[in-house]
Design brief:
- The chain contains ten helices and 13 strands.
- The strands form four sheets. The protein has a five-stranded mixed β-sheet, with helices on both faces. Strands 8-13-12-11 form a four-stranded mixed β-sheet. It has a two-stranded antiparallel sheet with strand order 2-3.
- The mean pLDDT is 96.
């Protein structure tokens, strides 16, 4: 057992003021609102205002998480922002977050693992805290402004993607509390199935005109579904095995909110029950690396996570990249009532 446990001491999230329901979206699509619900379960998605920014959303979510944890920004020694839609290609969003929060001594970096980013970021921060006692608290943020990169007339992306941010503060606890183990897996055989090529070094912006074929997000929904139902249960079972718990011992699960039907299918495939999980994808949509963070924040707000529960966090992202972590739930200030 490690000398210290690493627990989540505070969470917070931020959503745009405006949202779009299926009726509004379908004015630009050749499908019906009922078809979207049948295929995805999604009823609406949040859309950032023109003046909104990823860094602004990240800071707003972070401030709520810090307040819940009762940790001043001056005691944050590591900031990880998980995103694929930062303000700029560089510098990193985490640098702006450090500045705005006043966390002057914090190490910063952005982490790009697509929709698996938040699970990866929590694990990375936990590992860092375990090996370096000078890291008192860490701040992990998932944030996306997906709407800036999609064609609202593309049914393959527009029906899913949304904007928002979620954050978690990590703190030390007794050895029996907090994260137990994580597992990760990548199947790159469908590397091109979900992508955003425009602006990358293979499709740079200099010397060419705007090209809708490469300057919007592209997504193959069938490939994503097949990857998720094949590999997500495997990586979850691997995380459970490393944690020394049986799959049936999981008290509560929170997944990347990609598609309600996908979550339901995976839960049933593992012979578990949807009563053990929390979903918000129907009301919020798929917010990429922010989605699990927002769902976790809402679940804590609603008192769904309780002291001592065995909690699973799991996600799938482009690449295809899978991650899962198992936690013994503990919030020092009793954020989970």
């Amino acid at each position: 057992m490690f000398e210290h446990g690493i627990c989540i001491s505070g969470v917070g999230h931020h959503l745009p003021a405006a949202w779009e329901d299926n009726e509004a979206l379908c004015r630009n699509l050749d499908v019906t609102p009922e078809w979207i619900v049948e295929k995805t379960g999604i009823q609406r998605r949040y859309i950032a205002a023109p003046d909104d920014s990823a860094s602004g959303y990240a800071v707003a979510a972070a401030r709520r998480a810090l307040a819940m944890a009762d940790v001043p920004a001056s005691e944050i020694d590591l900031i990880i922002v998980c995103t694929f839609s930062g303000d700029y290609i560089f510098p990193p969003v985490s640098a702006k977050v450090q500045l705005e929060l006043g966390a002057a001594d914090a190490q910063i970096f952005d982490l790009q693992a697509n929709c698996t980013g938040f699970v990866t970021g929590l694990t990375t921060a936990s590992d860092r805290m375990r090996v370096d006692p000078s890291v008192r608290h860490a701040l992990v943020i998932g944030v996306e402004l997906c709407s800036r990169y999609i064609d609202r007339r593309d049914v393959n992306t527009a029906i899913y993607l949304s904007d928002g941010a979620g954050a978690a503060v990590l703190s030390r606890a007794a050895p029996e509390h907090g994260i137990k183990a994580s597992a990760f897996f990548t199947d790159a055989s469908n590397f091109e199935a979900v992508r955003m090529r425009g602006g990358g070094s293979s499709h740079g912006m200099i010397g060419r005109s705007y090209d809708p074929a490469v300057d919007h997000m592209e997504m193959n929904g069938i490939a994503t579904w097949k990857q998720a139902i094949t590999h997500m249960p495997k990586v979850i079972k691997a995380a459970c095995a490393k944690s020394g718990v049986e799959l049936g011992d999981i008290d509560f699960m929170i997944f990347h909110q990609a598609n309600y039907n996908l979550i339901d299918y995976i839960v049933r495939k593992m012979r578990l029950d949807m009563s053990r999980t929390f979903t918000n994808v129907r009301e919020i949509g798929n917010t990429g690396a922010a989605s699990l963070a927002i769902a976790l924040s809402e679940a804590v707000e609603q008192g769904l996570l309780r002291e001592g529960q065995t909690v699973l966090l799991a996600a799938v992202g482009a690449g295809f990249n899978f991650g899962a972590s198992v936690w013994t739930w503990h919030m020092p200030r009793d954020g989970a009532r």
